[in-house]
Amino acid sequence: MLDCTRFLSALKSRGIRFSAGVPDSLLKNICAAIADSGTDIITSNEGAAVALATGHHLATGEIPFVYMQNSGFGNAINPLTSLTDPEVYAIPVLLMVGWRGEPGFKDEPQHVKMGRVNPALLDALEIPFEVLSKDPEFAEDQLDRAFSMMRSTSGPFVLLVQADTFAPYTSTTLKTVPAYGWKREDAVRELLAALPEVATVVSTTGKTSREVYETRISRKEPAGRDFLTVGCMGHASQIAAGIALAKPELQVVCIDGDGAFLMHMGSAAITAALKPKNLLHVVINNGSHDSVGGQPTVGFEVPLDRIAAACGYAAVFRADSAAELKKILSEALQRSGPVFLEIRTDGGARANLGRPKSTPVENKTVFMQRLSAL
Ligand SMILES: Cc1ncc(C[n+]2csc(CCOP(=O)(O)OP(=O)(O)O)c2C)c(N)n1
């Protein structure tokens, strides 16, 4: 395994002064070390990280460093093909991509396709890459090759990172101070308990969907009420808006996260413009990418409720406690939408939180069967 501090020193000694990206659970240890290094910028999405890195290169001539999960590599393909590519602006960028779904290792369904095609996709994009070695000496040789390649091609180079490449690292700076006295799962439970039986839920990527799934089981309620958006982070609100527009009599509730909302915040403007009267868009804001290690978002620094109001949501609410949520929810559900509800909570989740036992296609099938009967 690679020591995180040593790896970052190896990057620094080769001239890396800038790092940006979107955190990943597979890269959790190195992400924590990057955060401690004081040079970290957590961007809204992975394409934005490539663009921010490009700006840094344009201003300094330095090679920047960008990290992401391979799910987010999809978000980065556009700037990688039309901005940094040697045939366009020729920007050298060192990318570290967490290889979820690597063939031969069990992973969640949403990671299997990207995991399988990842090397072939990099080949198709003509982006040179190496699978980062877990041997420190060999990894240093790879860095030398990566830097000489980036200097000769003036283009990006990818280090594909397998699970357990980086040794455990405990951050000294990634500490969230509990401020609200309840967690996302408490809010999920309150929400599901208060929703009418007919309401249809679309939940966001990460632990939120896992908590929705487990809450339904503990409440002995059928799974068909929820669409669990296990992948495609940031798009749950548009899935929900699509359902709400097609089924105007149905109450549709999106349970989003702050990281996911920020990832594609432009969708809020479109939701507001589409005016689905039957949509309640909830953002559980814990100020972090809690599901992948608790790295901070700007969720507590920007007024998400006021952003939604400025976009044109018909009504906007905010609840910072279970008592406030209880008070607000019946009104939020009665108002003509789109309605926005920000719920602020602390970070953190149960250590024994399970994962859906049904496949995404099984989830979709029961979900569609229920919708067609309503
Ligand atoms: C495009 C993309 N980038 C990154 C990830 C990895 N990822 C999964 S969940 C998550 C954090 C989500 O944060 P937030 O929406 O705030 O929800 P929280 O986990 O804090 O409840 C991340 C970064 C992903 N699945 N897809």
Brief digest:
The protein has helices at residues 4-13, 28-37, 46-60, 70-82, 109-124, 136-153, 184-194, 207-218, 236-246, 258-263, 266-274, 304-311, 322-334, 360-373, and strands at residues 19-21, 40-42, 65-69, 94-98, 129-131, 157-161, 200-203, 226-228, 252-257, 279-285, 288-289, 295-296, 315-319, 339-344. The protein is an alpha/beta fold.
> Helix count, per DSSP?
14
How do the helices and strands follow one another from N- to C-terminus?
A: HEHEHEHEHEHEHEHEHEHHEEEHEHEH
Bound chemical compounds: thiamine diphosphate
Largest sheet: 6 strands, parallel
Number of strands: 14
**Envelope shape:** elongated
Strand order of the largest sheet: 2-1-3-4-6-5
Percent strand: 15-25%
Radius of gyration: 21 Å
Unreliable spans are: none
Question: Roughly how many Å apart are the termini?
Answer: 53 Å
The percent of residues in helical segments reads 40-55%
Average pLDDT across residues? 96
Query: Helix/strand/pairing class, anyone?
Result: alpha/beta
Quaternary organization: single chain
